[in-house]
Design brief:
Elements: E1 3-12, E2 20-30, E3 33-38, E4 50-60, E5 62-68, H1 83-96, H2 101-117, E6 120-126, H3 131-144, E7 147-151, E8 153-154, H4 167-181, E9 188-190, E10 193-194, H5 202-215, E11 219-223, H6 227-236, H7 243-249, E12 258-262, H8 268-277, E13 280-283, H9 285-290, H10 298-303, E14 308-310, H11 322-339, H12 349-361, E15 378-381, H13 394-404, E16 410-415, E17 418-419
Parallel strand pairs: 1-4, 5-6, 6-7, 7-9, 8-10, 11-12, 12-13, 13-14
Antiparallel strand pairs: 1-2, 2-3, 4-15, 15-16, 16-17
Helix pairs in contact: 2-3, 4-5, 11-12
This protein binds guanine and fe (iii) ion.
Length: about 425
Amino acid sequence: MDRIIIKGDIVFTPTKDEFQVYKDSYLVSEEGKIIGIFDELEQRYQDYPINDYSGKIIIPGFVDLHLHAPQYANMGLGMDKELLPWLNTYTFPEEAKYSDTNYAMEVYSELVKDLWRNGTTSAVIFSSIHKGSTELLMDLFVRSKIRVYVGKVNMDRNSSKELTEDTYQSLKDTEDIILRYKDNSSLVKTIITPRFVPTCTDELMDGLGQLALKYDVPVQSHLCENVSEVEWVKELHPNLPNYSSVYNKYNLFGQTKTIMAHSIYVTDEELELMSENQVFAAHCVNSNFNLSSGIMPVRKFLNKGIPVGLGSDISGGHSLSIPRAIVSAIQGSKMIWLDSDMELQPLTCSEAFYLGTKGGGSFFGKVGSFEEGYEMDCLIVDDSNISNISRFTLEERIEKFLYLGDDRNILERYIQGKIVAEPK
Ligand code: GUN
Ligand code: FE
């Protein structure tokens, strides 16, 4: 039986309200799942192998609920436009390059390594429209042993010529990928990915919704990110009450597990529907700053019981680091607090940490926490260059790591109870 014990200063958030901390304790796992946390090892675990990280922090691996793999080369570029001109000027031309699988191999290899480096152990990813490059990306993840959903993007209107798919072919390629990866890996899975309403005909969305139901495959897309985008959707669907109802009409809004990125300008009715259908919101705060999109009022979502996680949304976002997203989410929530006459309370540190671990992780199942039965996905953090361990509590050390640390503080990544080596 696969069993491992790791020892160190353990921190996680079973609820968003506070950090649970276990100083100098043992995290016991079997078959890649958490058994429990102990301050002293019971007799029955005496012969389990122990990896001793005394003095280091052990936290759940980070979860990125939204990013675009074929935008990786554009990361940190093209920050001078709003969403729609940004897509046409920078994003679509870059994504068109992924018809070439050699280019895909080169850049996707760098991306996978960078995700690993940043301690992202689970991610939900858009690829491009291209079947070959999408499969290549999935195969890279199978080899790297990082937990992912990857979606081939679907778009059959309002795109550049190179990125406009034939509707039938788009559905066929999507179904082929679903079938090929159905029972292929416990870590790498398919997700249905209509880019967003403006680039998808009714026929395409209808077909995708049917595929989602037929194969019980989850769905991801974009929602209410930008004012011009929301107006455009209204023009395209004048007879539907709002943006969310378009997805909902086509079984793409929680009929199977669903993530909507951004969700900044959702109305109260849409919030209600997200709550009812338990649609996940991917809060992509750095992207929303960079593209002058706005700030999602996270507190409203939490108050309504809508599941929320964080997304790097590269290359709208400029960093794969989830700690950076955690800090920005806290900062953004303070601006929302001011704007709401101090009604919507800012996120606390434990709340934002929860969003970047268990909040997003719950899309995958039991991921992002150290409760019994959870996947044993964790990071070993050496914060000795940040905090004098004798001076700070464990809660203070984790806060300092989030604000001041970076990938160089991450010593080791575990997924399913195994150390994950740097991808080649
Ligand atoms: N909406 C539709 N496509 C995209 C994209 O690639 N990035 C972002 N941020 N929003 C989108
Ligand atoms: Fe996005």
